[in-house]
Fold each of these.
Amino acid sequence: MIRGILLDLDKTLVNVLDYVDYCSALRALFKHLGREVNADVPETYWGVCASKAMETLVALSGSVEWDTASNIIEEYEIKGAGASTPMHGLGRFMDEVGKFDKKAIVTLLGPKATKIVIQIHKINVDAVVSRSRDFKPKPYPDQVLQALKLLDIRPSEAVMVGDSEWDEKAAVSAGVCFIGVTNRRPVHHFKSSIAVVEDLHGACEVLRALRKNSLVC
């Protein structure tokens, strides 16, 4: 039985990405680092600058440079968070999410930006796992596993909803079923989802099917 719902935040529940100047953030980050770093991450649709910014944080995970790098990026995310807009169908979707016992946000956004978004859009969850030096970020499973720990549920009792291939890899690596939201993009690279839908309305229907046991992970 599915008891818990894990939710990506940016471009799943709320559009922050389009309001963050990740290109300026990336320039500031590379100026600080004095070099470019790389990591093996899934292909996704965020755009060159946002994708590279997140890839850099993955590459720096566990290093002494991570905190400063994350803070540089979050300065720009905070500005975007204040201008963020809800994804289409957010209200109806969160009503369906509320019918499950437990729910958590699992996001690559920094903690300050995450808090702003959750407060502005009145998103009610039991736990929040934003990016942190304590966990390898998505696409690693660490954030997902931390959310499960905070909710006190097993991987088999959870499903995750997200818009990116990074979310999918993190969820599946943690043993959690995944619902992919394409946001109507014509090309995606979801490979291991129990369902792939266009938007939150579609995700709502999948959650309803899981709740009524007409769909199983």
Amino acid sequence: MASRLMELPSFDNIVASFSRSYSYDKTYQAIEDDSAVIIHSSGTTGVPKPIYLTHGFLGTIDKQTQVPVPDGRVSAIPNQLSHDDLFLSTTPFFHLMGIFALVMSIFNRVPFVYLPATSSPADALVEVIKAERPTVAAITPALVEAVGQSASALHILSTVRTVCISGAPLAPHIGQALSKTTNLVSILGASKLGLVLSLVPEHKADWEYLEWNPNYPTRMDSCSDNSSLYELVIERNETRDIQGIFHVFPDLKEYRTKDLFSPHPTRHNLWRYEGRLDDTIIFHNGQKINPIPMEKIIESHPLVSRALVIGDRRPHAALLVEPSEESSVSNGDKSAVTEFVHTIWPVVELANELVPPGVHIGIMRIGLSSPNKPFRTTSEGSTQRRTVLQDYEQEIERIYQHDNYWYTMFKNG
């Protein structure tokens, strides 16, 4: 298919000219299933795909504001804001939260500010907060973690009344620090799924847990091979008014999200996001593990930018590490690579405690990324797992063939 180059008029040209009035007299019922906007998936589990959102899907954002919450409780979704609030969106308009900010602004007359595109989003976030003083912000966990590297930047973030996070787990030590100074709330939403209605936990210490609004039909199905993890299932209501997913898939009666959660150890109905069913690693003996908690522990080390636990159809786990900018590892320096691996080894041992001994990451099964081949990420800041695995296919083979290939892998990457 031949591509076409289209030049958009400048903003000044658009507002300087007059256009005739276009009447729109269709009813909501007539256009409910017509496409209103096209966004794309995040790309966490593969190549981003176009998603056609209908007028009915967008209408759920408005209708959800009318869903009651139990007495004395507060909705976790920031959809009860007024024109006195200022909502800060840090995600692009092709992402659900970017669309949410735009639609909420139209429906509820809530002003919002949008984080500009920049190579230093953490610095931009701090400057926007200082200049605009938003009351509520929706921020990706990766961006919160980047801000959390600086105590002064984290203090500025804490001036926001409510910080909503979604899309991935947040490093516990950063979440604990931020939750002491502001309202840190976990929410769940996705490009096709829409927003799943939940409640703010009654205890601030439970910031990483979600509690589903009982007026939004859900079910938690135990994973048969791992009783500690449960998959969220969306059950269809009598109407589709508050459930975006059934506007994307109108013939479904329920939707299996593939989102995995673990229950709170003592408090009923609280669920902590653990990752995706797609992320599950299945070893050659059938043993299954969720790599996300392990990766978050390893990424808590200041010398680690990103970590990727691997092992599908292998006898045991291995690790790919992208060193942080603070790391002194230099390409081809065997002693520096060896020192780096031994420096981060204590956090790898902590991560190993989460899985059976037979599949532990061995110290000789740690590979470093190449500076010329950084881990690819989504617009939310999450690692594109499948893409990185493809990018490093040969290096991964060397790890398992030689079991001591830190240096060769890094040098030849």
Amino acid sequence: DVAACTRHGVKVAVGGGLPYSTAELTWALVLASVRHIPQEVENIKAGRWQRTLGTSLHGRTLGVFGYGNIGSLVANYGRAFGMRVLIWGREGSRSRAQTGEFETVSNQRELFQQADVLSLHLKLNAETRGIVTADDLAAMKSSALLVNTSRAGLIAPGVLEAALRTGHPGFAAVDVYEDEPVIDKPLLHMENVLCTPHLGYVEKDVYENFFGTAFGQIRDFEDGKAVKGVIN
């Protein structure tokens, strides 16, 4: 970790990152889920026609838990779809959301109760690990969709699978897992869950930005120049 590197005289530099790819994947998962796209792709391949009934997003409520770089993009995309957007997060992020003319809720539970689509966009740390509890999920509508393209550890261990079996929320779309790569997990086999293999950052522009920054930092270090992004 950073403390150990500092003790041993090792410099740690953070890389570059772009929020757009994860925000876009979030919406890909939302649209695929509410319109049952994976199921209908399989249906048409098997000769079956129009076997599911989708749900429109316009006029429904999007809950965004965490209004940072990615969460703010997701919120704005939700607005473009004509959704009512609700925000919850730390006080500073709620203030920024209000500046952006987004509605904030009075507490975390209210966000889970009201959202038709709820998307998690928090950094994982000691404070946020397990921040989404079984009671939060139980408060969600049976028709609601929970989306996690952030970190699996934000949800208390095991509670998402249990909640989905009870029907609250009714659906989930998941791109992140506690142990990756995922070989086998109950979520992968649940009919009301759409799972993807951590694709949020797997995109050309992100890779070019991230690795380009890293190579530049290494080159500057070898040349004895000041290295950008050093955090210790």
Amino acid sequence: MNFDARIALFVSLSFFAPGISAAAEQSVEMKVDPATQNRVVKVVMEVEGTVRVNPDGTKLREFPMALTGTLQYDERILGSGAPIAAIRKYDEAWADMKLNGQDERTTLPASKTLVAAELDGGRQKLFLPEGHFTRGELDLINVQCSSLLAGHFLPKTKVKVGDVWTFENDRLAELFLLDAVSQNDMKAKLIQITDTQAKMELNGTIAGAAGGVATDLSVKAKINFNLEHKTVEWVAAAIDENRAIAHNAPGFKVKAVIRMLSQPVEAPVAALSDAQLAKVDLTPNSGKMLLSYESKEAGFGLLLERDWTMMSETGKQSVFRLVKQGDLIAQCNVTHISNLKAGEQMTLEAFQQEVQKSLGKNFGEFADASEGVTSNGLRRLRVTAHGVAESMPIEWIYYLFSDDSGRRYSIVFTLETSLAEKFAEGDRSFAGGFEMLALPEPKATAASEGDAADQPALRAAKTPETSVLKK
């Protein structure tokens, strides 16, 4: 590793020594050199504001939040012939968040520090060549103004001091992690040219959407382009972001400051060398994009497509929502239900009777029923039921997983019948990633809690009410 570049990351991220100004009429071309393949990057984040929720749809509640975090990684650009755009090795990745007085720290485990970056239609997608991120781990490192996309800030033609340029909506969506941008008045201006740097200032507003809800940004930024190394070496962005409440996420109004320093190095660190990368399959696929979820208390794990979001969890149950392009498609409840005696199993016919009893007057008919054994040896029952709730045609898909010891879990999907095509049998991939984990040691609980845990099988699985699917 280039020692000088490593040292540069520990100087103040808000200070650069001024260079000697070049002639004002000098024009420069700022294009990132694809030959600049190796760099070390440090990102510092500070966020402060409020989070908004409206859990019952009647009363808006706001909570104060603050976040600080740091990322530091070596990044190797792999070029057009590689299956991915870049590979990173993280030395540091953490964020401390305080939400409504509660502290939470997120870090990247040592086993997940080798990270691949794919550019899918211009959008950065991060994944692990081996293993899977949790939602929190992915959100930690997938930040605005990524070093891989910083070239989007640059003009397409030569410019001189005082020249101004604008931005395409799609490029801003990629830079600021938005699903789409409808309009923007962002402008950048070349402020100074020195022997080694071109310095720019950027400001304006962005009207866009993320998670299907309105998201407005006001941005002021300073960007330095290194004329010698042909790379964006410095981004300091102040971002005011106002996002509405989504089906699967709270809204927020925050002020964020992101500082990114990137320094080229002559050779990659050992973890990113040709010899080491030859041992790793870097080819992206849908399986590598799955997210890992574990409920240690309830004793189960899942591999989820990224459109699924965990909404709430208790010691017995976790609730998820599937949102695609802003539309709420389905809700899913995974519940640890009462055990049977070792060796006992519920028949498919008895399971159907339980489902019909659970749905009560909402039940219409069974569409299908099947049973089988999973790849990890669990017995699986699956039943699809159609019916009507609150005058709305609904489809319910029930799963029951059990093992020889008598442990049982129900998975229940609820969706409007009209959304079945968009759902595209998403239950099968969701349930296909289910596994039982070791249960924690039993805790002494109040009798009332014990009684609640022993509700009839599948009764607790009815929790997803049809009203949550209303738009």
